[in-house]
Design a protein that fits this description.
The chain is built from seven helices and nine strands. It is α/β, with parallel strands linked by helices and 256 residues long.
């Protein structure tokens, strides 16, 4: 794609380096945060993409923690971008209702496609710079991270070696904007995913009913998928779950 990078900041963090940059696109700059392992020149490392949840951004505590772990402990590159109407893409924080309304106004499917292109440009940028292997990818993103990650994993096909998805499904509860619901599109995307998938579920999820999550899981075309279920509502994440996500991705991306 030939993305253009505008480097903005860099700092050492533990045994890694954190870099902030924008990727220039006609639709506007894509704000990116990347974590790179401390390594000698040689083969670029695998790249793990981190999708944040709703009302969060690329600098959320969990995203930063995961990015630093993948770079420092696994020796991978990691990358996060701000979702639509989140983080650096806006000047003032928006409520969930407000950004849902903006996405609905633009068209939920159009926003999905734009986010796929934004991710693709960011991936291409790091690959072009020789900082990551853009054909050896992993993905971690739940809730809104799955809403926008699912079409991405489908679009890039066998470039993905593994994905952690979940807290999301083909049905949604009454608290969410109905314009956000795209069951046919997302079911079609799921049917194109063939890499191993770890699917995280909250058994008492009030935003995405369990039946709809099971429907999405069943639609995944891969025969290498795991159902990881925990008690509790949508906003709860068991402390041990994060380690399961990390290990799943690391095991899939290490050189055999």
């Amino acid at each position: 794609m030939g993305a253009t990078i505008e480097w903005r900041a860099r700092q050492p963090v533990d045994r890694a380096e954190e870099r902030e940059f924008h990727v220039k696109r006609p639709s506007g700059p894509v704000p990116v945060l990347a974590w790179l392992p401390a390594q000698a020149a040689g083969t670029p490392p695998p790249l793990v993409l981190l999708g944040h949840g709703g009302s969060s951004d690329k600098r959320s505590e969990r995203i930063v923690r995961l990015g630093r772990w993948f770079a420092a402990e696994a020796g991978f590159a990691a990358l996060a971008i701000d979702g639509p109407f989140h983080g650096e893409r806006i000047t003032t924080a928006m409520t969930a209702e407000a950004y849902w309304a903006e996405i609905a106004r633009e068209g939920a499917e159009a926003v999905l496609d734009r986010m796929v292109d934004d991710w693709w440009e960011a991936i291409d940028a790091l690959g072009t710079e020789g900082l990551a292997d853009d054909r050896r990818l992993g993905y971690v993103g739940l809730s809104m991270g799955s809403r926008f990650g699912l079409p991405l994993v489908a679009a890039l096909g066998d470039r993905f070696r593994a994905a952690v998805l979940g807290k999301f499904g083909l049905q949604q509860g009454p608290a969410l904007n109905p314009a956000m619901n795209l069951p046919e599109r997302l079911a079609a995307d799921a049917s194109r995913i063939t890499c191993p998938v770890l699917f995280h579920v909250q058994l008492d999820d009030e935003l995405f009913p369990l039946d709809g999550q099971r429907q999405l899981f069943d639609r995944l075309a891969t025969d290498r998928k795991e159902w990881l279920a925990y008690p509790g509502p949508h906003s709860v994440t068991d402390p041990g779950a994060e380690a399961r996500w990390r290990d799943f991705i690391r095991n899939a991306l290490v050189d055999k």
